[in-house]
């Protein structure tokens, strides 16, 4: 049952756990087990916001072990209707430079074995992933970046790899040759599960490095370097998030996310 405790949910990534310092912590039970941590609820940008560190408070859950279903269900149970999903990410194209932001519009799933649906029957449910991200939130995020004087790429495809390992150079070169821009380990199934719950969702990828296959002389990507660059740009991300939150209307009327399940079921 939705409790209307919060209206917007934020999933944090590496180095992003202090967004709502001093906020109330809420423990949420779900049919899918425990979420990554207790959820912090407070106010930001004039909105009631629920924040959940997707990797846990101490980064104890690697990407392939995150309980994505529990995380999304917990947000929905608090009344959240929109999800902001920032993340650290690598670049697959030279113009997308470290320190830039990308508001992704598509993903390519290269994960394996992750539970990626709430609908296991008995009613067959086929949710479209043609347009995975909310059209309204994407435009608001782009505008928030520009207002904040941040270099924002207005679209991009994120390749989601299984992790926890990074890509080989051959894999990375293949992703680059396909024209995809961003590489990450957590956007799938997080984004699709949000869609299955008829939530709006937007991704803001903060580029921390060039992936290993893009430039022959680049050093192999390391987690420590990713965290370093992410932390250096954290204040920019926080500024952009506040501007985005301030611009989001309370009612959803300019997107179709709330009606995602219409026509998705055989009854």
The gyration radius over C-alpha positions equals 17 Å
The total number of structural domains is 1
Globally, the shape reads: globular
SSE series: EEEEHEEEHEEHEHEHH
Secondary structure tally, helices: 6
Cα-to-Cα separation, first versus last residue = 24 Å
CATH class bucket: Alpha Beta
CATH architecture: 3-Layer(aba) Sandwich
Strand content: 15-25%
> Which percent range fits the helix content?
10-25%
Low-confidence stretches: none
CATH topology-level fold name = Rossmann fold
Structural class by SSE content: alpha/beta
Main sheet record: 11 strands, mixed
Would you report the number of β strands?
A: 11
Overall pLDDT metric: 90
What is the CATH homologous superfamily assignment? Answer: Nucleoside phosphorylase domain
Question: Overview of this structure, please?
Answer:
This protein is of the alpha/beta class and 267 residues long. The chain has a single domain (8-259), classed as Nucleoside phosphorylase domain (Rossmann fold), CATH 3.40.50. It has six helices and eleven strands. Helix 2 packs across helix 6. The protein is globular and about 50 Å long. It starts with 7 loop residues before the first strand and ends in a 20-residue tail after the last helix. The mean pLDDT is 90.
